[in-house]
Amino acid sequence: MLIKRRQFLQTGSLAAATLMLPKFLKAFEKNNIAIVPPGNKVVVVLQMSGGNDGLNTVIPVSNDIYHKSRPGLSISKGKALRLTNEVALHPELTAFKNLYDDGSLGILNNVGYPSPDRSHFRSMDIWQTGSASTEFFTTGWIGRYLDAQCADCGKPTQALEIDDILSLALKGSAEKGIAFKDPRRLYNTSNENYFKQLAAQHHAEEHDKPVDYLYKTMAETLSSADYIFEQSRLHPSKANYPQTELGNNLKTIASLILSDINTKVYYVSIGSFDTHVFQQNTQQRLFKQMNAAVEAFVKDMKNSNRFNDVLLFTFSEFGRRVSQNASGGTDHGTANNMFLISGGLKQKGLINELPDLADLDNGDLKYKIDFKQVYATILNKWLQADDKAILEKQYDYLSFI
Amino acid sequence: MQVLHYNNAFSEILLLNQRYVIRSNFKMPASQQVKNQHLLWRAGFGVNAETVSNIAVVSHTALYKVLETASLSQAAYIDVANDTVKGLLMGFQQVADMQQMQASVNQNQRREFRKASAQNIKNLNTTWLNEMATGDAQLREKLALFWHGHFACRNLNIFYQQLLLQQIRSNALTNFGDLLKGVSKSAGMLNFLNNQQNQKQHPNENFAREVMELFTMGRGNYTEQDVKEAARAFTGWEAKFNGDFIFRAFFHDDEEKTFLGKKGNFDGDDILNIILEQPQTATFITKKIYKYFVNQNVDEDIIAALSTSFYESNYDIKMLMKNIFTSEWFYNEKNIGCKIKSPVELLVGIRRMLPMQLEDERTQLLLENALGQILFYPPNVAGWPGGNAWIDSSTLMLRLRIPQLIKNDDTFYITEKTDDDVQMGMEDNEKSYTKQLSKGGFRIAANINWSAYTQQFEHVNHEDLYNSIEAVVLQTNKGSINKNIIEAGIKSNNKEEYIKNVTIALMSTPEYQLC
């Protein structure tokens, strides 16, 4: 059966997969084999940890307030990468500029949430769980997507994080994503004979005991480790990626996207963007890495005809204050911009207006779009999931996909 | 295993039924050993190596008496602040007195202080772990760990953290009202919950809200208006830089407030007293204690009885804990081995049973980080969620490998998640606590005092050895792990090696994660 399916995919995917998909997927679900053929949408979340300075990312180059507030930090029109008369990108983001030019980049400005919190861990919690700043959720938004999506799905590989430690974002109450840096190391660690035998000898009793939950997680981890490793070797990406951590991680993701794995969400981070001092150097260095890695990834996806099905988006737990501080840096702020990258965007370029620097809240940007609206849009329109159940509230959709 | 193979469901069910019948024939009341270990795990951090051989000779009531008595002594203040951070503090106080320094200089000093402070908090962490692992006041430290999660506070000031920890440790077993007031007046909590910004002219509700929602009554037992009124009463509650509580009358709103149906010119103490007058506060705290110390699934009748007497005793924590740990229901089978150990309970539990010297104690912080519980860095003011939330594929596989890592000096690969609140954009130059090897590998260089443990089995016959070890290592599912898998590759002719290897193998099981 496996062979038959692959043959079909190889011959049929390019031309007709999109049209045939719903029927296709149902058939697979019936057999409890959650394999996602090409043509299915995946999301790559790129977390910019530490609070990236959005104003020096998408730059209001013609705005006097911007230049006046940052006499030592503002980037001039001549140096930045011009998008419009008013707006330019940070000089290191050349690949993002090219994506803008070919219609594969969307920029959302002023994304945030009411009563913003300036602590990294708290604001990151809010972004990762999708809670309001007055609520404390113990599960992440992708974790709850797994809960909704993956009840008894056998292989809990719908969401993967390329990291040693799993983020709260990917923890649901019943299901949790899997974190690993390297599929081979994950495989080696869990392939220890002792663990395999241990998992194999356990038989759950009819009452759900805590030990059964642990054995279930163990068995799923072991089988997922095999599955991920096997998939990562199916069509390993042959493209050139920069030899940086993000470069390696996006290459791992690319190899999995090109395989038959059932993963819908990939999660990866870069940081730290916490630029209280000497911001210019830090941001430049990180953008250089990010730019090269994303460039390689997009090229890889385009060459494999998967770019229309992949949506990569960036976020950071907060932006930074409009005015620079006395140490050549900026302090924790509020609303921020997000990049949306895909061959399948419906809205491109600057999707909404830049922040109004004349209308600040105590020196901070006011948010216009709740980040949960972005999640709701992606869950609903890209992943065909029940966003209202997952986010525990109905948010207005945006139109970028 | 059924998770993996659905195809043979029918024969699987038959097999299950068979097993169930066989198991249920063996069901009997928990033995004295199981009961005592249950008590030691819940009211402390598990069995101490030296007591393994005579664990079953006392009754659990007598054992509890021992635990309680050992925990009533005054907790010694843990002071790890080094000269660097003390010097910075003194300089800082001078600056604050002069109030003439440039804002920028101040900010740099503040940054330097926070950095030095964060390093000191690591020592506070390992020092407290040592107290849990080697101290006799097991009940006190276990309760302190519970209160540490209940009164969850992130603060990068080492002095504030030390003072708050002392508040919690010295009141862990006394009176909840005293504990609540002590914590509420601590510099750490007042700062963490922004009460220094809560002033008459512009109140900040954060502190008042969390006191009611998380520390005392729980949601649904007060109105938004009560939060506003309480916030007004807490105006003027601040802390000096050295951590002393100070009431700043100038910022205090002394007009009339209406709080939970009462009217008066309340201040913060009045609010806390009114909160303590609510039986709901006793119920909320009792339920949380029951979930932590007994079972996640609560028995409402027991909660009602416990919380009534807790309330009537004017919040006597010692009495509440005694009611729990000397009750009959605490030792019911359903309450034994049903709790997933927190990372700290797991690590400290291993250290109690296998006394060891760690070449670098900060390795433990790396494990805390990877397993999701760094002391003094709770995820938020609601504390660690606990239970199944401790377990995901990464944390479970690391948990299962820790005993082997300790024994073999094996290598493990972890890159910590950075904490930007601590690092503030700077590299943490003391990050490599451990011998970091190539490609990000780490080692737990532990020197285990094996004889303290193995000599406990001196009088155990060879044929009883496996069961004796299993009985002391595991609290649940005894006898159900396939012995052949555990014993595979172990040479049984050397008793000491056999004990070591079986112990490590049993600690590397899902069962060992439970207590």
Share of β-strand residues of chain A: 5-15%
Category by helix and strand content of chain B: mainly alpha
Query: What fraction of residues of chain B sit in β-strands?
Result: under 5%
Q: What is the tally of beta strands of chain A? A: 12
**Could you list the spans of chain B in which at least 5 consecutive residues all have pLDDT below 50?**
1-27, 98-104, 429-438
- Described by its quaternary structure, the protein is heterodimer
Mean residue pLDDT of chain B: 87
The number of strands of chain B is 8
Distance between the terminal alpha carbons of chain A, to the nearest Å? 34 Å
In which range does the helix fraction of chain A lie? 25-40%
What order do the strands of the largest sheet of chain B run in, or round the barrel if closed?
1-2
Number of helices of chain A: 12
The number of helical segments of chain B is 23
pLDDT below 50 for ≥5 consecutive residues: which ranges of chain A? 1-36
Biggest sheet features of chain B: 2 strands, antiparallel
Class derived from helix and strand content of chain A: alpha/beta
